[in-house]
Amino acid sequence: MDGGSDLAAELKDGALAGSGAQAVERALRLLSLVGRGADRGTTLGEVVADSGLNKPTARRLLMALIRARLVEQDEVSRRYFLGGELYVLGQLASRRHGLLDMAGESLRRLSAVSADTSFLSMRRDDYAVCLQREEGTHPVRTHALLAGDQHPLGVGAGSLAMLSALPDAEVEAVLERIEPALGARYPAYSLALLRADVARTRTSGFALNPGHVVASSWGIGRAIRFPDGRLAGALSIAAIDSRLRPERQVELAALIGEEVARVEARLARLFAAQASPDPNVRPVERARATRGSPARA
Fold first, then answer.
1. Can you name the CATH fold of 95-290?
2. Interval 176-197: pLDDT, tens
3. Which of 81, 93, 191, 297 has its CA 20 to 30 A from that of 183?
4. Per-residue b or e along 271-292, where b marks 16 or more CB atoms closer than 10 Å to that residue's CB
C-alpha cells in the first residue's frame, strides 16, 4: 500500500497528537465516522463535530487516510467516503467473520416468504450497521434502512433486538453513551423509551419498531448469537405500518426465529470446524462446508 508510509509519517507528527498511539486512535476514530456516512458520504464539518477534533487536525488525518486509500473524497461534493483499500481488507476479513455469508440464504428466504424487505445487521461499538438489505416483492416498500446505514443501538428493530440481547449493565452503559446522539438526531427516542422497549423485547421474544424512525415504516427483529452466547447480529423485516398489524407481527417474529435458528446452527458448525480442523481442508473450504447442509429451525 503506497500510502502506508505517508500515513505512518502523519500519525507520528507531534503536532497532531501527544503520542503516535493517540494519533492512531484518532485516525481510526475518523475512519469509523466516515463509515457511518455510508453511500451519502460525510462532510468535514460532521467529522469535526462528532470527533471533537479541531478542523486542521481532522483535515490532516483525513488526508493521511486518503493517501493510504482508506478514505476517498468526492471531487464535486467534497464529501468523504470509505476507500477501495477497505474493500480489499473486508474481503480478507470476511473469510474469518462471515456473518453475511452465513445469513444470505436466510435473508432471501425471509423476503420471499414475507414479500417484505429483510435486513442483516451487526453491532459496531454503540451502533448497529446494516450489512445487507434484501428486497421483497410487495410493491410498496420502506426505504428507512439501506445497506451501510448506522443507527445507535436500540434505534430500529434489528438494532433494538441487539441492544436487548446485551447484559443489563452493558445496556445501561450503551444508553449513557448514545444519549447525546439521541437528543441530536432521533427526537422520537429517549432513554426511558429505549428501556421500556428493551423490557418489552425480552418479554415478547422479538423487537418491534412501531415507526419511531420513519412514521410509516415498522419493523420486527430478533438477535443472532454465536455458540458461546455472545451477540453476533440480528435479522429483521420492515414493512409499511398497514402490513404489520398485531397478528402478523407474531407470524413474522416466528418466521424470523426460524431463520435465526438456521444461522446460529451454521455458526455452530463453523466454530466446531475451526476448533478441531481437518489439516487437509483449508479454512475457506471449511466455511463453505458449513453452508452445505441446511439446519433445522
1. Beta-Lactamase (3.30.450)
2. 999 999 988 898 899 999 999 9
3. 81
4. eebeeeeeeeeeeeebbeebee
- Write the DSSP string, 218-246: EEEEEEEE-TTS-EEEEEEEEEEGGG--H
Measured distance CA(34)–CA(148) in Å, rounded: 11
| pLDDT tens for each residue of 10-50 | 455 444 444 677 888 888 889 988 987 777 889 999 999 98
CB 181 within 8 A of CB 191: no
User: Considering only CA atoms, which of 235, 9, 192 is closest in space to residue 102?
Assistant: 235
Residue 294 CA: distances (Å) to CA of 37, 78, 139, 267: 36, 47, 30, 12
Residue 79 pLDDT greater than 60, yes or no = yes
Q: Domain boundaries in the chain?
A: 4-91, 95-290
Which CATH number is correct for 4-91, 2.60.40.420, 3.10.20.30, 1.10.10.10, 3.40.50.150? 1.10.10.10
The three-class DSSP label of residue 134 is strand
pLDDT tens-digit readout, 252-276:
999 999 999 999 999 888 777 766 5
Burial 144-181 (b: 16+ CB within 10 A, else e): bbeebbbbbbbbbbbbbbbbbbbeeeebeebbeebeeb
Residue 117's alpha-carbon distances to 8, 88, 111, in angstroms, are 43, 28, 6
